[in-house]
Amino acid sequence: MTTEYLLNEQMEHVLAALTPQNALIMRTLLHTGMRLSDVLALKTAQLRPSGWYTEGKTGKRRRFGLPAELLESIKAQAGPEWAFPGLSPRGGHKTRQAVWKDVKRASRAFRLPQNVGPHSARKIYAVDLMAKYGDIERVRRALNHESSTVTAIYAMADMLTERRMERRRRGRRPSYPPPPPPQAGGQGGRGAGGAEGSSRARGGGPAAPEERQTQGPSGAAAAARTEGRQAPGPERGTS
Length: 239
Fold this sequence. Notes:
The chain is mainly alpha-helical. Helices cover 50% and strands 4% of the residues. The chain is built from 12 helices and 2 strands.
């Protein structure tokens, strides 16, 4: 299942729930647009403000940059060989499965409706670049994509996710509480919350039949007009 874009607030929730090392890994993904496997393969010797690496998926060279604060945080926990060392006594870097499981756990903790994974960070990176430059070709080059069609899916991931969420909301049928039982009392067996009250609350409807019998001349005129008859007007000389 394809991973989906996250809103900034949602991603901050996920980052807050991750282990410190996995949060660093996700922040590196968000800032560089790298794939998870490439971030985990970074060597400690590669940790500098900017550099080059070879993509494991495509075999192509790609440039990356790290801001000073993020770079220092990564160096503080780096091992002798790997930027993100694993816990295995045999050595090696952090595994993709360990990061993936932690991201899934964090997204479930906040009950996010999207399918969240480490690759969601690459889509956020693309959306942010598109918002900053408004140039799909520039985003394509930054992601090292062969096709701008693929880049467009990433760069418009926010709109696609919003449409999916809207469809999910429409698919949920709202549940309404049952109507209150009719209240006893009042004229003609109607209470203040009965049909007459509801009609007036909507802007005034026709009067109840029992009320027409007690109306004055103006009420009789309205009733006669409704029935198509000429209503007797008020006596002349009266005000």
